[in-house]
Every structure is written in C-alpha cells, then in structure tokens.
Amino acid sequence: MPDAVIVEAVRTPVGKRDGALSGVHPVDLSAHVLRGLVERTGLDPAEIEDVIWGCVSQAGEQTLDIARNAVLAAGWPETVTGVTVDRQCGSSQQSVHFAAAGLIAGHHDVVVAGGVESMSRVPMGFSAQGHDPLGERVLARYGGVRPNQGLGAEMIAERWGFSRTQVDEFSLGSHEKAAAAQDSGAFDDQILPITTPDGTVVRADEGVRRGGTLDKLGGLKPAFKADGVVTAGNSSQISDGAAGLLMMTSEKAARLGLRPIARVHTAALAGDDPVIMLTAPIPATRKALARSGLSVRDIGVFEVNEAFATVPLAWLAELGADAKALNPHGGAVALGHPLGGSGARLMTTLVHHMRSAGVRYGLQTMCEGGGQANATVLELL
Fold first, then answer.
1. Does the active-site annotation cover 131?
2. What is the pLDDT of residues 140-149, one digit of tens each?
3. Sequence-distant (≥ 6) Cβ neighbours of residue 195 within 8 angstroms
4. Are 234 and 167 in contact (CB under 8 A)?
5. What residues does 22 pair with on adjacent strands?
6. To bridge 344 with a disulfide, which of 92, 159, 236, 376 should be the other Cys (CB 3.0-4.6 Å)?
C-alpha cells in the first residue's frame, strides 16, 4: 500500500504585522517557499503534480487561487496545478492531510502541501467586511451568540481555572524557548532567508521578545474582557509568512534518490463547540492517538498551536502530556501566527526537531475557526 512521506520542509521567517515581510506580495512569499523546496532537493518541478496551499483570508491579493499563482510566480511548468484550502487556522495542516490522502490513494506521486498568510496586506476578517458569513440559522442555533476567539480563550481560562499568572508564565516561556532556539541555530535549517523589495535580507522570526518579565506582562490590559486574563502578551501575534512541505510516496522517493524525513502515520479531525471554538485539539488528539495505536507517552514531541496561551494549557491539562515535550522551540505567542501558513510552519518546525533530536513520534494539533481541529502523528524515518 502506498504511503505518504515528507522529503523536505521549509518556511520563510515569520514577520511581524507591518514588519519586514509586509512589503512582499503573498504570492511571492509562497513562490519563495516553492523554489526553496526544489532547490534544496534538486527535484525537477515538472515532477510535482499539485500544490495544495492553505490560506484563510482569500480576498484581495490572496484571492484567485493563490496556490496556482504561486506555482506560476515560482517559474514552475504550467503543467503543475494548485488548489487553495480554507480550514481556518488549520488550513495548511489540512493541506498536508489532503496531500497524504492523495498519495496513499494513488491520485498522485509527488505533491507540495503548505500555506501562506500576509496579515499585513490582507487583514484578518477582511473577506467578511460588510457581510455576515454565519447567516440567520447558525446564529439562531447558538442563541444569537456570535463566536469570538478572544472570548473563547477567556471561556477556557474560566472552565479550567487558569489564573492570569499561569497564562503569562506560559507566554513568557514561549518567548524564552524561541529565543534559545534562535541562539542555538535550531531554526537555521528550516528558514529560507528572503530578500524584500527594498533589498533587506530577512533571516529570523521577528516576533520573539527577549528580556520579558511577569511584571511587564502583568501590566498589559485584558483585550477581550475587563476582568479577564487574555492580553496581547499571551495571545498569538498577527504575522506574515509561508511554509511548505515536499511530499511523495516512499517508492517515488527511492526512484528519485531522495531520503524521506518522516511519514504521515495518522491524520484525524475533530469538531467541538463553535462558541468556545478553541477546544477541539483535545478530542482531535485523543482521536489521533486512538487511531494510531499509540499512547501519549509514546509521543516524544508535541506542537500545539499557541493561538492563545490558554489553548495549549487546557490541552496539557486534559492530555497529561509531558510539559517539557510541548512546543520545545516556542510557539505562536512568540513566533507569530500567519493564519493559513501556521499549520505548515508548525509541521516544518516539528519534522526538523524530530530529525535533529532523534524523536520517533511527533504529534501536531491546532484549534480552528468554527470549533474544529486537525491532529497529525508523524513518524521519523
């Protein structure tokens, strides 16, 4: 039976809102990643049959099937197709799932999965401006409550009893781990430096803050609720960036003389309450573990997206995983969250860490708009 393996994984640095990458068109951010994948492997892009690309705000510069436009901007043959996916924050993780399913089913032999978001150029919510994406029936089903991610993060804090200090401590740790990863060179192999239109070469993630303290974080006002715990300091950063993974079957990799890094062992989805919105990583992880035949103790590293610090804290409380194995190089609180590119960014970081640390099994999950989540188990090869 065919399998699905990851041969290479790369990403751009993650730029801050209106930062160094804000002058780069999202099509060009995506094309930079596509070119990097073939340059790293020496693969003829004509071998690639499809590009499955996540993007959340498919409006303005990110519309008109950005996946296909990225293929053309990369200079790849016109025979290479592209399709754009929206599962909210999990869009590019879902792209990996679609790619793996297609490989295992025999629909293609070589595919790229990944995603992009330029939140500086296409602001969050831009595509819904002036429109109601929910409609009357969805609102009526939930008593007229319009879901809000920030309030959902506050609901998690209330349900699990997290204090402001606990949430800020987690966030401070995210920055400390990300800074240590930068200093040790842990991100160097996964990041493709990019030259902006003004000639600036961007080599590192811009969101990492050094020298933070609990006192500084504690001075920030709650962002969504006057007496709440969620602030800008313990939430993910609005960001620009792209990431991608070159995937194929093991048989095809052997024919091309390429050595896989990891295989997609298990993929799962879960849905949960769309009002609290952010809790689905918990049932998604449980489903993935049950389907894989593995226990939480078999997993050597976890990447749980830090949309808000309360999300991985609740996940940790429910799953009982080793806290030291969670987001070992920091997460979106420190590195940023370019929506459609985040799933592939997490997975790129995950596979590089698995390879460098010799970790056999890794698991990734992330909350998504509408109360959904993807979960993926990777196995090192």
1. no
2. 999 999 999 9
3. 201, 202
4. yes
5. none
6. 92
Which of 32, 55, 89, 97 does the annotation list as catalytic?
89
337 in active site: yes
Buried b / exposed e over 356-378, threshold 16 CB at 10 Å, is eeebbbbbbbbbbbebbbbbbbb
User: Where do we find the tokens 């609740």?
Assistant: 314
The continuous run of DSSP H or E covering 67 comes out as helix 66-73
Got the DSSP string for 87-107? BTBTHHHHHHHHHHHHHHHTS
228-254 residue pLDDT tens: 999 999 999 999 999 999 999 999 999
Burial of 296 (0-12, 13-18, 19+ CB in 10 A): middle
Q: Are 209 and 175 in contact (CB under 8 A)?
A: yes
Residues 6+ apart with CB under 8 A from 27: 61, 66, 69, 70, 73
The SS3 assignment for 26 reads helix
Q: Which among 108, 329, 337, 352 is annotated as catalytic?
A: 337
Burial-class residue 248 by CB neighbours within 10 Å (0-12, 13-18, 19+).
buried
- pTM, two decimals, is 0.97
Collect all residues with Cβ–Cβ distance below 8 Å to 333 and sequence separation of at least 6: 170, 171, 174, 175, 234, 235, 236, 237, 306, 309
Q: Are strands 301-304 and 262-271 parallel, antiparallel or unpaired?
A: unpaired
Contact by Cβ (8 Å): 262, 354: yes
Q: Which helix (H) or strand (E) holds 353?
A: helix 339-357
